[in-house]
């Protein structure tokens, strides 16, 4: 293949694509807005699934490196009620297909697998335009541009490449995370640490839930999930950590103190993470020389599949390009025709029930999907 691939975004999907292309001897350049690979924290843990994320890593030739960073025991899952009583407790017996890793470590494995200079840091895309005959120009905030005959938007929810293909824009999904951390939890926050257990814990209620992971280094990473409109969150001053913490914890008045401690005793200021989605079944007509992957293509509210799907997209696109090195359009058509239904596939609910959970409530459905292996 003689056309170098231009990838916008050095997230897991874009890097997986670059790596699979490298395995097949296809050159690629990745443009990333962040100034360096260590410019910001890369988030918490990810469960990498044996039916998509791990298959992508296999295509990238990185399964051994992946297994080396798996956090043992983290597939343990427990469900508590608001009083702290255990409703469900499933131990990690080592046979599950969704091992947990730190996102930052997984990203670093992908970065380390690429030739030096593949990623060009400090290139924030601000726009893209069509030049004709399958060629496109991307403009960056630093004043530079890149012209390419094969452009891939792997630049997330607010993709600057997407407008070349689609007029769709993300909309607020009706829920948001408020994120907190507790460090040295077993010694400094023993009650909360005991409640979370050895892996993941969720305490659900209608319109709200507390969800926490035990990460590496004895850290508890908590996502408080609230179904509230954006103006409700806008009324909270998140620059005032104490006031924001007090307001969010107020939503859980009367809950067990070991659960509310995950909010009130946070060792970091609470961070708001609104959820946005693209229209269900988002797709576009084939435009020569450009495509999308990951959240740029099929942004959805968190369900445990986003990172896995992005990596699968990257691997499948890389394999399609390698299979049709002299026919880019055939490769892109093949990729998109498989990606569209894959990204919109319905979550299968097998009828399992959890004591104390109202299966008619959206929180209950999401929880049951998680316990059935649909997301975490």
TrEMBL record:
Necessary cofactors: FAD
Please name the InterPro entries in this protein's record.
FAD-bd, FAD/NAD-bd_sf, TetX_monooxygenase
Note the superkingdom of the native organism: Bacteria
FAD-binding domain sequence ranges:
3-347
**Residues holding NADPH:** 40
> For this protein, what is any one GO molecular function term?
FAD binding
Keyword presence, Nucleotide-binding: yes
Q: Which compartments does it reside in?
A: Cytoplasm
For this protein, the record's SUPFAM superfamilies field holds: FAD/NAD(P)-binding domain (SSF51905)
Keywords attached to this Swiss-Prot or TrEMBL record, sorted alphabetically, are:
Cytoplasm, FAD, Flavoprotein, Monooxygenase, NADP, Nucleotide-binding, Oxidoreductase
Binding partners and assembly = Monomer.
Belongs to which family?
A: Belongs to the aromatic-ring hydroxylase family. TetX subfamily.
Q: Which PANTHER family match?
A: FAD DEPENDENT OXIDOREDUCTASE DOMAIN-CONTAINING PROTEIN (PTHR46972:SF1), MONOOXYGENASE ASQM-RELATED (PTHR46972)
Q: What is this protein called?
A: Flavin-dependent monooxygenase
- Species for this entry: Streptomyces kasugaensis
């Amino acid at each position: 293949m003689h056309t170098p691939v231009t990838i916008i975004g050095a997230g897991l999907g874009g890097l997986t694509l670059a790596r699979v292309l490298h395995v097949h001897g296809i050159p690629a350049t990745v443009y990333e807005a962040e100034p360096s690979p260590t410019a910001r924290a890369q988030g918490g843990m990810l469960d990498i699934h044996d039916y998509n994320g791990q298959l992508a890593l296999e295509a990238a030739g990185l399964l051994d490196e992946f297994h080396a960073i798996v956090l043992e025991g983290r597939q343990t899952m427990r469900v508590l009620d608001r009083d702290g009583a255990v409703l469900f407790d499933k131990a990690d017996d080592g046979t599950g297909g969704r091992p947990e890793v730190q996102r930052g470590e997984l990203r670093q494995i992908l970065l380390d697998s690429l030739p030096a200079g593949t990623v060009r840091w400090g290139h924030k895309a601000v726009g893209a335009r069509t030049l004709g005959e399958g060629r496109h120009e991307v403009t960056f905030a630093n004043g530079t541009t890149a012209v390419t005959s094969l452009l891939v938007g792997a630049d997330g929810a607010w993709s600057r490449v997407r407008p070349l293909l689609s007029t769709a824009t993300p909309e607020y999904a009706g829920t948001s995370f408020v994120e907190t951390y507790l460090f040295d939890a077993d010694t400094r926050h023993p009650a909360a640490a005991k409640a979370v257990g050895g892996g993941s814990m969720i305490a659900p209620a209608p319109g709200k839930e507390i969800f926490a992971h035990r990460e590496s280094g004895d850290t508890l990473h908590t996502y408080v999930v609230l179904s509230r409109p954006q103006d409700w969150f806008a009324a909270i001053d998140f620059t005032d950590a104490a006031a924001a913490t007090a307001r969010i914890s107020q939503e859980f008045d009367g809950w067990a103190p070991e659960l509310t401690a995950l909010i009130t005793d946070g060792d970091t200021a609470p961070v708001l993470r609104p959820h946005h989605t693209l229209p269900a079944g988002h797709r576009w007509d084939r435009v020569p020389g450009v495509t999308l992957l990951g959240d740029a293509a099929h942004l959805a509210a968190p369900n445990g599949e986003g990172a896995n799907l992005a990596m699968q997209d990257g691997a499948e696109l890389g394999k399609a390009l390698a299979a049709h090195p002299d026919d880019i359009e055939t490769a892109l058509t093949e990729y998109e025709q498989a990606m569209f239904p894959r990204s919109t596939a319905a979550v299968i609910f097998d009828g399992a029930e959890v004591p104390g959970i109202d299966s008619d409530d959206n929180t209950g459905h999401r929880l049951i999907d998680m316990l059935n292996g649909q997301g975490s």
